[in-house]
Design a protein that fits this description.
The chain is mainly α and about 130 residues long. It is built from seven helices and no strands.
């Protein structure tokens, strides 16, 4: 009887809590306005500094920083549609408008350059599709 108690009330809850991966990242911060951050130098520099461990992070910055390695490795499999959309917008913005900062972030989170390559291929394909439709 005691063993049943241990299994039912201790082991099962621990496994449910800690032993299984969640299928998606939290959507708590999905409504953060990424464009507002990209358009505001002070906010942008603060987020970049957070991601590079140069300054403190906001709660959403901490969440982002915690999830980036897994998201990059899994090609954002756990991302919501909004998170994918924001990630694509952020990467595009950083590569096109802040290449020095992108290089620092890339060295930390994607040293093989795979996300830059993926973005450039996507951009090339989008340009090719526009040219073909003319």
């Amino acid at each position: 009887m005691f063993m049943l108690f241990i299994i039912s009330f201790i082991i099962v809850p621990v496994l449910k809590c800690c032993g299984t991966e969640t299928s998606t990242y939290t959507t708590q911060y999905d409504e953060v306005d990424i464009k507002e951050i990209m358009d505001n130098e002070r906010l942008l520099v603060a987020y970049i500094g957070c991601l590079l461990d140069k300054n403190p992070c906001t709660p959403e910055g901490k969440e982002l920083k915690r999830n980036i390695p897994d998201a990059l490795q899994s090609d954002c499999n756990k991302c919501s549609d909004k998170q994918r959309e924001n990630a694509d917008a952020w990467i595009e913005f950083m590569i096109d408008n802040r290449p020095e900062d992108w290089t620092k972030l890339e060295e930390r989170y994607s040293p093989d350059g795979s996300y830059r390559t993926k973005y450039l291929e996507s951009k090339h394909n989008a340009t090719s599709n526009v040219d073909e439709s003319k």
